[in-house]
Every structure is written in C-alpha cells, then in structure tokens.
Amino acid sequence: MSATLEALSTGGQVGAVLPLLTAVVQRPAWSAKYKKVVAVVAALLAGVIAVAADGGWGQFQNGHLTTATLLGVLVASQTSYDLVWKPSKLAPWVEALTTKKTPQQAE
What we know:
Elements: H1 3-25, H2 32-55, H3 63-85, H4 90-97, H5 103-106
Helix pairs in contact: 1-2, 1-3, 1-4, 2-3
C-alpha cells in the first residue's frame, strides 16, 4: 500500500471513532457552531497525534502525508458523526450522560 493510502487509512480509522470521544467533552446546551468548532479542533489534534503515533515526530517532515492524515481524520470524523453517531443517537446520549447535572436538574 502506498504511503498516502496508509496515511488516509490511519486518518479514517481515528476519525471514525473520534465523535464518540468528542461527545465526552461536549455539552447538549452548547450551540451547534460551538460544537462544530470543538469537533474540528479535536479532529486536528487527533490527526497530529495519529501522525506522531504512526511515524514518529519525524513524520511531520513529510507535509504530504501529514496533510493526508489530518484531512482523513477531519473528513472521517464529520462523516461518521453525520451518518452513524448522530442518527443512532449514541453521540448525543454520551453528551447527556457525561454532563454534570445541576441541583435543579437532579430533582
């Protein structure tokens, strides 16, 4: 497999599960715009971690592969959220589950 396909594959794998991890920190009360910003930042951070884990810090010397991995994570995370995690209600459930309840909500 070519290096570019490996980079895209790594990005796709990380991005496919990232929405569930992002849902842990997101809150149901946040605006859609704010949630999107958090999701994009999380995807970029996860992409950097994926690049470092896949090829070490020296991997960043190859901009083409780094970009492919970052874009793979971003595209896969947004697509999997829209097509799988949001319709299944799993990501919103995780958001609600990990949100602290105020004393008024607990009653």
